[in-house]
């Protein structure tokens, strides 16, 4: 009887712990600083409704790890390193895109605007602070139009781009009217014009690339049409344009079309766009257009808006010689023909080409001496690889279903056997596993798919199973495929209608601080074991995570115990919990929340 009584007591204690932990994260996530520092309506509603029923506890999910003894012993026997805050001057620090460092590199081919990371002995190894007054961004869709001034206090664009309707300063917020250099009357009307040629309403076009995106209004307004744009722009004189994009809740990275290949797989995008992006498309033997062709899927579209289109009418307004503009357009047209693109539209300052579905109509270029075909066997091997003026051959198969069907159907790269060692059955099993994992995540954090977390990153995305399982209009996921993982898996991510990028986590990511609301890392630390310092990876996660943002790390228990020890010195609150299948599974989940603190302040919830 005594044994039964002890078991009953232990069971009651475990249920209480489970309930308490769930509600802790539920309420902690709900009470967010938003707008002007007050709890927003969603947070208030979620907090008021928090109850045992809302926490949705299931008996099989044990939030208390059965390795607590090992963890406690390790922490007790090893001195925990405390990471100090960086100086206030580093609030917008981008380690691989530092302005002062960039000026030491050549200007040709925009090399100085490419990634140039600080050497190992110059890494800061401190916690990048938020600026004073920092608040949680507005929820989508309000965030599309408004950004708190305190989060990115830079007014230069409000003056420089005033007549183009990019951005306006209104009291304590920036307002984004949806204008752009080529669409001062608004992105919606501009996209309507494009949609008269490009099928944006039926799911045929799902992924888009915006080169030289500004504040990403084109990508922001494509959202309502269920198109996901990957936008990039350099960190240059247009201060904080990518930062503004991410504060608005729009996918974007710091980047440039320069001398290095774009960090995206072959045949990734259904549509690519340049709106007065100042890229010299006719230069370097058409190399930049050939790189766009590489990442554009068969049947995809390329849009060029601005110079040199319609140069006969606009050369005076552009203050450029007629002859230069005429030659620039001639080179673009010539390269497009060589790439087997068909011109579908030209009106005003907009021209649209379509890449052909296959090379049947391009047989003649096989004998064209100008047609230099890429000779690499791995067209997705792009990380820090020099861009080449060569044509990427067409694949044997490339048929895609329309979105959302393509999200969970077997992608062509899998069905054709292009991904070595992965069958259709294995792919579908991976999908089932991630649906199961995400269901368990939602029991831990009931705010996961409520819109509380808009910008989400998966640091080791695999086939994009995590992103597919939480797909919603309320959020987006940056699916990162580490360069030391299977490179061809990012191609599968794009074939599903999701977006992502290649990256090496031994270096800093191409983004500003505080740009992600939630970070997911699946076996990332096991992957990078003995490759680089786990401290550096966690400090980078801290840099790009918003105050009060959440982290989910899935890995083996020994790895997670080490990670938990490191983050105990990083102003994060964390909890190690069991796998959803029970305590006997070696894989565990570490849940963490970054504390709210700003420069020259102490940590605070």
TrEMBL record:
EC annotation from Swiss-Prot or TrEMBL: 2.1.1.-
GO CC terms of this entry: cytoplasm; Golgi membrane
Membrane topology according to the record: Single-pass type II membrane protein; Single-pass membrane protein
InterPro entries xrefs: Put_SAM_MeTrfase, SAM-dependent_MTases_sf
This protein's UniProt keywords: Glycoprotein, Golgi apparatus, Membrane, Methyltransferase, Signal-anchor, Transferase, Transmembrane, Transmembrane helix
Subcellular location: Endomembrane system; Golgi apparatus membrane; Membrane
Molecular function terms from GO: methyltransferase activity
Pfam family membership, one: Methyltransf_29
Example GO BP: methylation
Membrane spanning residue stretches: 12-31
Family (UniProt): Belongs to the methyltransferase superfamily.
Name recorded for this polypeptide: Methyltransferase
Gene: BnaCnng12360D
């Amino acid at each position: 009887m005594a044994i039964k009584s002890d078991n009953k007591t232990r069971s009651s204690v475990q249920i209480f712990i489970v309930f308490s932990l769930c509600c802790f994260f539920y309420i902690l996530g709900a009470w967010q600083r938003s707008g002007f520092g007050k709890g927003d309506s969603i947070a208030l509603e979620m907090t008021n409704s928090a109850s045992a029923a809302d926490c949705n506890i299931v008996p099989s999910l044990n939030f208390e790890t059965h390795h607590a003894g090992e963890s406690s012993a390790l922490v007790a026997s090893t001195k925990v390193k405390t990471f100090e805050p960086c100086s206030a001057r580093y609030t917008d620090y981008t380690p691989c895109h530092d302005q002062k460092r960039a000026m030491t590199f050549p200007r040709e081919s925009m090399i100085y605007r490419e990634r140039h990371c600080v050497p190992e002995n110059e890494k800061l190894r401190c916690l990048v602070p938020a600026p004073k007054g920092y608040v949680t961004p507005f929820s989508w869709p309000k965030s599309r139009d408004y950004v708190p001034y305190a989060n990115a206090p830079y007014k230069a664009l409000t003056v420089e781009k005033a007549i183009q309707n990019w951005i306006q300063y209104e009291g304590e917020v920036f307002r984004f009217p949806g204008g752009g250099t080529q669409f001062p009357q608004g992105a919606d009307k501009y996209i309507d014009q494009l949609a008269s040629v490009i099928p944006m309403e039926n799911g045929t076009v799902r992924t888009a690339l915006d080169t030289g995106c500004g504040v990403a209004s084109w990508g922001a307004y494509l959202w309502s049409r269920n198109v996901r744009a990957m936008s990039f722009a350099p960190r240059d004189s247009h201060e904080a344009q990518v930062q503004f994009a991410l504060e608005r809740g729009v996918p974007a990275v710091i980047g440039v079309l320069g001398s290095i290949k774009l960090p995206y797989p072959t045949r990734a995008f259904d549509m690519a766009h340049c709106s007065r992006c100042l890229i010299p498309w006719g230069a370097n033997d058409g190399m930049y257009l050939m790189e766009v062709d590489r990442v554009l899927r068969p049947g995809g579209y390329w849009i060029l808006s601005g110079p040199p289109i319609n140069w006969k009418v606009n050369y005076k307004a552009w203050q450029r010689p007629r002859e230069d503009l005429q030659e620039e357009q001639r080179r673009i047209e010539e390269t497009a023909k060589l790439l087997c693109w068909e011109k579908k539209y030209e009106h005003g300052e907009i021209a649209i080409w379509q890449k052909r579905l296959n090379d049947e109509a391009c047989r003649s270029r096989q004998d064209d001496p100008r047609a230099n075909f890429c000779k690499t066997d791995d067209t997705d091997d792009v990380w820090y690889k020099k861009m080449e003026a060569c044509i990427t051959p067409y694949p044997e198969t490339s048929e895609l279903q329309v979105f959302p069907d393509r999200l969970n159907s077997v992608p062509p790269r899998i069905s054709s056997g292009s991904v070595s060692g992965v069958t259709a059955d294995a792919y579908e099993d991976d999908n089932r596993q991630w649906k199961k994992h995400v269901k368990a995540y939602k029991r831990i954090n009931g705010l996961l798919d409520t819109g509380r977390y808009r910008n989400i990153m998966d640091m080791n995305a695999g086939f994009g199973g995590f992103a597919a399982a939480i797909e919603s209009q309320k959020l987006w996921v940056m699916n990162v495929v580490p360069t030391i993982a299977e490179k061809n898996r990012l191609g599968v991510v794009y074939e599903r209608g999701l977006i992502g990028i290649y990256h090496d986590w031994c270096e800093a990511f191409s983004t500003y601080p505080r740009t992600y609301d939630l970070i997911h890392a699946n076996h990332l630390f096991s992957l990078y074991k003995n490759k680089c310092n786990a401290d550096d990876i966690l400090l980078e996660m801290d840099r790009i995570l918003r105050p009060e943002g959440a982290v989910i790390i899935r890995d083996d228990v020994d790895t997670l115990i080490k990670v938990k020890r490191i983050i105990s010195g990083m102003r994060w609150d964390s909890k190690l919990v069991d796998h959803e299948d029970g305590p006997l599974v070696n894989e565990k989940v570490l849940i963490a929340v970054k504390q709210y603190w700003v420069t020259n302040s102490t940590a605070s919830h």
